C-alpha cells in the first residue's frame, strides 16, 4: 500500500472474516440448494416424434408422449425427483363443459401411464384445472360470464380421479375454487386411492407472469378477460394464510405459493405460520425474464438461476417448480452452489 491511510477506528466485529475464504464461506452458508428440491414442469402434445419449441420460453418445448418419456429418462438420470405435467390439447377437444378433462383416455392420462411404466420411480404430478380443456380458457365452468364454483369442483374431482387411476403420484389442483381439496380427497378415498397426494396451489395469485405458460398450453388465445374472480389479488397476504389454512384442513399434503420471486414474503409467512411442506413455483414469466436477459448477454444465466433458486430456499420453500430444473441439476452436479 503506497498511500498512508488516515487514522481509522478498528471494529471488534468483522463479519467479513467468515467471508474471506471459500472454506469458511462454505461452513457458514445457511441454506443449501439440492437437486432434491427441484420439480420440472413439462408440456405434452398429441402425436409422435413431435418437439415444438415455445417461443416465449426459449429452451422449453412441448413433446409428444414418446419423446417426453425419453426426456423424462434424462430428467430422472439427473436426479430430479418429480415432474409436473401440463397438456397442450387440440382445439377440437375443447368445449364449454371441458368434459375431455375427465376422459380416462385423454392426453394427460395416456402420458401418465407411459411415463410411470417406463420410469416408475419418477414422481408424476398432474395439474387439476379445466383451462387446457375449456373452450374459453378459464379454469372453471362459465355461466353468464362468471366461473361457477361448485359445478366446477364436481368436474375437478372427476378429473383428479381419472388422473390418479392412470397412476399419477400426486394431483395438484391449480384452479382456486373453494372447497375443492376436500371434494378431491373424498373422491380419491372413495376409489381406494388413499395414497395419491394432493399438492394444493393454495395461494395462487392473478398474475401477469403466467403469459408464456398460456402460450405453451394454448389457453391464452381463447382466454377472455382475466382470472381475478378466483385467483388472488397481488395486494393481499393475510388472505394467503386463510387459503393455506383452509386447504390444510381439507386434507392438502403439500401447499404451494405461486408465482415465486415476487411473492417470497408469502412463502416465508406460510412457512412460519404452518411449518408444512411448502412449494414455490417459479413461473413461466419469471423464466422468460431471466432467459431473455441471458440471451441478450445482460445476465449470467448459470449464476442467476442458482441465485434465484437459493432465494426460494431462504424464504422457506422446501421445493421449487422451475423450468430451470435440468440446468440447475447439472450445475449442482458440477459443484456449483
Ligand atoms: N391452471 C392453470 C395454470 N397452471 C399453472 C399455470 C402457470 C404456470 C406458469 O406460468 O409457469 C397456470 C396458468 C393460469 O392460471 O392461467
Ligand atoms: Mg382456496
- Major sheet details: 8 strands, parallel, barrel
Strand content: 15-25%
What's the CATH class, please? Alpha Beta
Mean pLDDT: 96
Task: Specify the structural class.
Answer: alpha/beta
What is the chain-wise order of helices and strands?
A: HEEEHEHEEEHEHEHHEHEHHEH
Q: Give the name of the CATH superfamily.
A: Aldolase class I
Discrete helix count:
11
Ligand catalogue: the ligand NCc1[nH]cc(CCC(=O)O)c1CC(=O)O, magnesium ion
Instruction: Report the radius of gyration as a whole number of Å.
Output: 22 Å
CATH architecture: Alpha-Beta Barrel
Helix content: 25-40%
- Across the major sheet, the strand order is 1-4-5-8-9-10-11-12
Report the count of strand segments: 12
| Total domain units | 1
- Approximate shape: globular
Q: What does the model show?
A:
There is one protein chain. The chain is α/β, with parallel strands linked by helices and about 325 residues long. The chain has one domain: TIM Barrel (Alpha-Beta Barrel). About 35% of the residues lie in helices and about 15% in strands. The chain is built from eleven helices and twelve strands. A hairpin with a 7-residue loop joins strand 2 and strand 3. Helix 4 runs parallel beside helix 5, helix 7 packs across helix 8 and helix 8 packs parallel to helix 10. The two termini are about 35 Å apart. Ligand PBG binds next to helix 6. The site of the ligand NCc1[nH]cc(CCC(=O)O)c1CC(=O)O has 11 residues, from helix 6. One of its GO terms (molecular function) is porphobilinogen synthase activity. Pfam families: ALAD. Its EC number is 4.2.1.24. It catalyses: 2 5-aminolevulinate = porphobilinogen + 2 H2O + H(+).
Amino acid at each position: 500500500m503506497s498511500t498512508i491511510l488516515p487514522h481509522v477506528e478498528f471494529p471488534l466485529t468483522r463479519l467479513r472474516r467468515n467471508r474471506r475464504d471459500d472454506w469458511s464461506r462454505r461452513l457458514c452458508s445457511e441454506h443449501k440448494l439440492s437437486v432434491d428440491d427441484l420439480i420440472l414442469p413439462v408440456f405434452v402434445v398429441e402425436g409422435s416424434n413431435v418437439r415444438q419449441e415455445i417461443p416465449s420460453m426459449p429452451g422449453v418445448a412441448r413433446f409428444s408422449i414418446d419423446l417426453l418419456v425419453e426426456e423424462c429418462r434424462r430428467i430422472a438420470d439427473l436426479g430430479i425427483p418429480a415432474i409436473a405435467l401440463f397438456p397442450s390439447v387440440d382445439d377440437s377437444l375443447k368445449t364449454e363443459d371441458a368434459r375431455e378433462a375427465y376422459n380416462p383416455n385423454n392426453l394427460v392420462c395416456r402420458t401418465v401411464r407411459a411415463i410411470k411404466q417406463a420410469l416408475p420411480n419418477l414422481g408424476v404430478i398432474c395439474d387439476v384445472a379445466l383451462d387446457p380443456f375449456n373452450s374459453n380458457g378459464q379454469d372453471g365452468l362459465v355461466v353468464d360470464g362468471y366461473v361457477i364454483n361448485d359445478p366446477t369442483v364436481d368436474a375437478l374431482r372427476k378429473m383428479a380421479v381419472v388422473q390418479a387411476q392412470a397412476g399419477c403420484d400426486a394431483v395438484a389442483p391449480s384452479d382456486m375454487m373453494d372447497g375443492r381439496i376436500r371434494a378431491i380427497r373424498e373422491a380419491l378415498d372413495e376409489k381406494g386411492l388413499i395414497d395419491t397426494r394432493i399438492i394444493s396451489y393454495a395461494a395462487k395469485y392473478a398474475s401477469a407472469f403466467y403469459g408464456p405458460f398460456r402460450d405453451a398450453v394454448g389457453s391464452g388465445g381463447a382466454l377472455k378477460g382475466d382470472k381475478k374472480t378466483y385467483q388472488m389479488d397481488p395486494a393481499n397476504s393475510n388472505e394467503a394464510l386463510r387459503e393455506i389454512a383452509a386447504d390444510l384442513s381439507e386434507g392438502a399434503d403439500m401447499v404451494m405459493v405461486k408465482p415465486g420471486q415476487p411473492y417470497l414474503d408469502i412463502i416465508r409467512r406460510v412457512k412460519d405460520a404452518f411449518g408444512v411442506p411448502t412449494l414455490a413455483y417459479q413461473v413461466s414469466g419469471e423464466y422468460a425474464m431471466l432467459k431473455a436477459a441471458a440471451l441478450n448477454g445482460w445476465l449470467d444465466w448459470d449464476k442467476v438461476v442458482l441465485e434465484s433458486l437459493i432465494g426460494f430456499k431462504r424464504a422457506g420453500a422446501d421445493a421449487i417448480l422451475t423450468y430451470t430444473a435440468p440446468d440447475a441439476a447439472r450445475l449442482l452436479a458440477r459443484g456449483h452452489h
